[in-house]
Amino acid sequence: MTKKEIVKKIADRAKLTQLMTKQIVQWTFDAIIETLLTEKRIELRNFGVFEVKRRKARKARNPRTDEQVFVAPKNVVTFQPGKEMEEQVRRLPLLEEKPRKQRRARGPQQGEAGAAMPSVNSDGAGMGVPAANGHDASDGAKKKKARKDS
Question: Which long-range contacts (CB under 8 A, 24 or more apart) does 101-106 make?
């Protein structure tokens, strides 16, 4: 849901214009941010608690270069949901688990020393394996290259 959708929902319910409602919603967000900046914590009963906390300095790893990097300490905003929100969310039917993205291999592929394995699509493209349509999936690329060369 977006801020625009929240504004529309509140405007319909309160019988106010969307322009006025947008202003009120923005004032609310601004008040939350201002309170976090000055008091470092805001508690909204039955909703939750926003709090500014310091995240410690740490060593991390650049996934592209595998190089270790230093991450400086920084302030972050945390949110702890309120009891009522927590209970309502728990009553929801379980959401489907999102499949995790596979990480790229960092070292040589299995079976070959230092050589990268050719990429393979689910239909076998790139391996000279016939695709579902009966043609070698790499034929199109070969023909295109041949036309370009001539």
Answer: 106/66
